Amino acid sequence: MIARYTWRTGLLEAVLVLTALLFLVPLYALVNISLKPANATSGLLTPTLHLHLSNYADAWHTAALGPALWNSFLITAGSLLILIPIAALASYPLARVTRAWSRLTFYGIAAGLILPMQLALLPLYTNIRDLGLLGTPWSLIVYYAGLTFPFSVFLYTGFLRALPIEYEEAAVMDGCGPLRAFVSVVFPLLRPVTGTVVILNAIGIWNDFFAPLLFLSGTDSQTAPVALYSFVGQYVSQWPMVFAGLVVSVIPVLVAYLFLQKYIIQGFAGGLKG
């Protein structure tokens, strides 16, 4: 049966196109301003006739974006490398064990989504200082791995509950232990939700401003948001250079999202079913 193209279909397509254009307006304004001259007085959406690509080179050198982007990448990647195996392993028994302690543990971890981070900020800062990690990227790696743990466990557990248990039972019958069954059979099946965990947490870690400002204050190991903040403070009137730096800092996360968007949708769909 061939579906007919009705006026409702056309109206839905028009709404979707307008919504897409609405979301593209800020991106257009960001790129447009980054290409304007320093003394530009035209509006945000007024097209730039003479493109000033030198704004990108000036922003790169003045704000030291190269080292800042590298530090952001190391901190983001390090946090995710610690987070993903721990969160996945912790979620496995929470999803498969049906006893009361399993549900209580899950609810206790999920409570971390509600509690504000500022409640533990002072003791956390003191512990990181006592461990000798203050002022190093490791302070942020440990901090972000713990901060994103409840949300990651929530996603992994929901996806695992929707995953058929027959795969693990077949692995156990073939002689695999619980850990071997998880590593060899279950974890490869978690690829969609792992993509969701990676990109959603990476965006939050990459764009975070407060924690790097607190834990890396007074050092040369600054992340991209902090580097751009100091750049704005020094060159507050040169907005095209500021927006050029913003465009450069957005590109890595945008590229990662485009590559992982399929897994994000699959991960959310599996989690909602669970």
List keywords for this structure.
mainly alpha; MetI-like fold; 13 helices; about 75% helix
Number of domains: 2
Rg calculated over all Cα atoms: 23 Å
The structural class is mainly alpha
Shape: globular
Largest sheet: none
List the total number of helices: 13
**CATH architecture field of the largest domain:** Orthogonal Bundle
Residue share in helices? over 70%
Percent strand:
under 5%
CATH homologous superfamily descriptor of the largest domain: MetI-like
Low-confidence stretches: none
Q: What is the string of helix and strand elements?
A: HHHHHHHHHHHHH
Provide the residue-averaged pLDDT: 83
Q: Would you give the CATH topology of the largest domain? A: MetI-like fold
Number of strands: 0
Separation of the first and last Cα atoms: 33 Å
Which CATH class of the largest domain?
Answer: Mainly Alpha
Sum this structure up briefly.
With 274 residues, the protein is mainly α. It has 13 helices and no strands.
Could you walk me through the main structural features you see in this protein, from its secondary elements to its overall organization?
This protein has 13 helices and no strands. It folds into two domains: 1-34, no CATH class; 55-273, MetI-like (MetI-like fold), CATH 1.10.3720.10. The model has no long low-confidence stretch (mean pLDDT 83). The chain is 74% helix and 0% strand. The chain is mainly α and 274 residues long.
Topology:
Elements: H1 7-34, H2 54-62, H3 65-96, H4 100-110, H5 121-130, H6 137-147, H7 149-161, H8 166-173, H9 178-189, H10 191-207, H11 210-215, H12 224-234, H13 239-273
